[in-house]
Design goal:
It is built from 9 helices and 8 strands. The protein is mainly alpha-helical and 309 residues long. The strands form 4 sheets. A two-stranded parallel sheet has the order 1-8. Strands 2-3 form a two-stranded antiparallel ribbon. The N and C termini lie far apart (59 Å).
Length: 309
């Protein structure tokens, strides 16, 4: 007889008076904060900001606005992605639903009274698309090559993705299918109930979190080794021509291809998430949305490098 993991964590990490801070929010903040620090180090390593001119550090303030662009792009893209792809019948068929797409509230059914619920639906595919759009706007503002921006953000992105999936685990959401494996988790949510009981399920959130942290470690090691290989040579960011240099698009391609390939296959171990994703087709919404990202990632890894764009 297996001793399954009875998963009943508190959604709230702590309270400040009557205001509760959720684990999910803390995981998001941790992912963004660590990502911020990693990219700041990358910009400094590559002399993007501060630049080194005549042996002197010159701050161009290229890095300062990047966090705002990323934060807005990710959150807005993730929110719209969830509403449009997973619950269009709710959010796109009424004025109340449309307002709830953008505000962390839920209206009463027969009135305009509302209460705060937070952003309870965020989709990773939408967040990725929103991030890419935000980075394009950042590129135009700061006059930087797009592959340089994408590569640097991609080195940090898997760590942030790991934190977000740990937040999903703390919320007992995006649960896996029923399993008899000894590492099965027993989730105590209405979605996890089957036949009046709570059977053990695959902790798909944990699978993804572990994979994403492995991707982060692998990408970080590749980046560090590639930098050491150029020591003592002319290695200014915009002059390095090797395939795995930052600015080639290699890191962006590697990260989105690996993450969304894994996402495609892990979907087979997840329960259908409802809404437009109703399980009526062999591939669910998450898998169909992953395919374009995988194709784009592979293309970025094998394309002819243009260091001017």
């Amino acid at each position: 007889m297996f001793l399954y993991i009875d998963w009943q964590p508190s959604i709230e990490a702590f309270k400040i008076g009557s205001f509760g801070v959720r684990w999910y929010s803390l995981c998001w903040v941790a992912g963004l904060l660590v990502g911020y620090l990693i990219v700041r180090k990358l910009f400094a390593d590559q002399q993007i900001d501060p630049e080194i001119k005549n042996g002197t550090k010159v701050y161009t303030h290229r890095f300062d606005p990047l966090f705002i662009y990323c934060f807005v792009g990710i959150v807005l893209g993730a929110r719209l992605g969830h509403c449009i792809f997973y619950e269009p019948s709710y959010y796109l068929t009424s004025v109340k639903g449309f307002i709830e797409m953008f505000l962390p509230i839920r209206f009463a059914q027969n009135s305009w009274d509302f209460h705060m619920i937070g952003y309870t639906g965020l989709a990773s595919h939408g967040g990725t698309a929103g991030l890419i759009l935000a980075l394009y706007l950042y590129k135009r503002s700061k006059k930087m090559p797009m592959p340089v921006i994408l590569d640097n953000l991609s080195i940090a992105a898997p760590f942030a993705a790991c934190c977000i999936r740990l937040g999903n685990l703390m919320n007992s959401e995006i649960i896996g299918t029923v399993t008899d494996k000894p590492w099965g988790f027993i989730f105590h949510t209405p979605e996890a109930m089957q036949g009046g009981t709570f059977p053990p399920r695959h902790p798909s959130q944990l699978y993804e979190a572990l994979f994403y942290i492995l991707v982060f470690v692998a990408v970080w090691v590749i980046y560090q080794r590639s930098r050491k290989a150029y020591q003592g040579k002319e290695n200014t960011l915009y002059q390095v021509r090797e395939r795995i240099s930052v600015g080639s698009g290699f890191y962006f391609g590697l990260v989105i291809a690996s993450i969304f390939t894994f996402r495609f296959f892990i979907e087979f171990l997840k329960e259908v998430q409802g809404g437009a994703d109703n399980g009526s087709t062999w591939l669910d919404m998450g898998q169909m949305l992953s395919i374009p990202f995988v194709i784009a990632g592979v293309w970025m890894m094998v394309r002819k490098v243009d260091y001017k764009n």
